[in-house]
Amino acid sequence: MVEREDWRRIEYKRKAITALLPYALRKERDGQPEMFDAFIRAVRASKDQYFMWYCIKQYASRIPRETSPRAIVLVSPHIHWRRLSAREELIQRWAAAASAVPYTEEVAQNVVNTLLQIASQEELVQHIPTDAWSWLSKHPSLPPICRGRDVGTHVHVVRAVWALKDIEALKSYFLLVWSEWSHFSSATLDEFCIPSIWPSPSSPNSSDRGSGHSSRPSCDTR
After folding, report:
1. 22 lies in a domain?
2. Residue 210 falls inside a structural domain
3. Is 70 in contact with 101 (CB distance < 8 Å)?
4. pLDDT of residue 187
5. Is 23 domain-assigned?
6. What number of CA atoms fall less than 13 Å from residue 3's CA on the CB side?
7. By CB atoms within 10 Å of each CB, which of 91, 103, 133, 217 scores lowest?
8. Which parts of the chain sit beneath pLDDT 50?
9. What is the pLDDT of residue 216?
10. Please, what's the b/e burial string for 8-23 (b: 16 or more CB within 10 A of its CB; e: otherwise)?
11. How many structural domains is the chain composed of?
12. In this structure, are residues 152 and 116 in contact, taking their beta carbons and an 8 Å threshold?
């Protein structure tokens, strides 16, 4: 068991690390990424995925103007999108940064993690550019502990991905969030698995008409 005094020391270290973030972001912008890379490693090593937020929340909306596209992409998964003001503008700047930064697996993980967190806020879905959704088609992986996977299984997110009409994006999405699918009840899954867009058994275009089988897909909720 960790003693209270040990927790205080950990908290002091976190405060010291996060206090360096504004300076690290500016150094990254100026072509000196070493401090920012060290900061990101420290954040990832922490078991508390929320501690970084307390530093970011004061100036999150200014981050895109003060650093590089790469830093925006790497910091964005640690922002609590539902607690920000001017979120629509920040989404546009994040999407522009994602388009500008060279592709790596690390970048793809961070972009999709952020994408699912943003999409979890239903009122923000309409502000996500189509190009940002295309990252799902790249079939990225996600870390085992990932906030985007935790919150990205709401029905409205599923519908937004379905509306893309991109089978690769849809397949990638299901593979990414499948471990969190217990978030849904069977009734909720049924609501998605038998939407109005599927042809009914009586549809003239149904290939199964007369066979006695429904053309609607089944959904195993076990």
Report:
1. yes
2. no
3. yes
4. 46
5. yes
6. 3
7. 217
8. 1-2, 183-188, 194-222
9. 36
10. eeeeeebeebbebbbe
11. 1
12. yes
Cβ distance 76 to 109 under 8 Å? no
Q: What is the predicted pLDDT for the residue at 79?
A: 81
Give the model's pLDDT for residue 14: 64
Domain that holds residue 136: 4-193
Could you tell me if residue 207 is inside a domain?
no
The reported pLDDT for the residue numbered 109 is 93
Q: Name the residue with tokens 């940002």.
A: 132
pLDDT tens sequence across 90-100: 899 999 999 99
Query: Angle 196-197-202 (CA atoms, 0-180°, nearest 5)?
Result: 75
**Residues near 151 by beta carbon (within 8 Å), at least 6 away in sequence:** 116, 117, 120
Length of the chain, please?
A: 222
Report CA 118 to chain centroid distance, whole Å: 6
Per-residue three-class SS string for the chain: CCCHHHHHHHHHHHHHHHHCHHHHHHHHHCCCCHHHHHHHHHHHHCCCCCCCHHHHCCCHHHHHHHCCHHHHHHHHHHCCHHHCCCHHHHHHHHHHHHHHCCCCHHHHHHHHHHHHHHHCCHHHHHHCCHHHHHHHHHCCCCCCCCHHHHHCCCHHHHHHHHHCCCHHHHHHHHHHHHHHHHHCCHHHHHHHHCCCCCCCCCCCCCCCCCCCCCCCCCCCCC
Q: How far is CA 67 from CA 39, 70, 147, 194, in A?
A: 14, 8, 24, 45
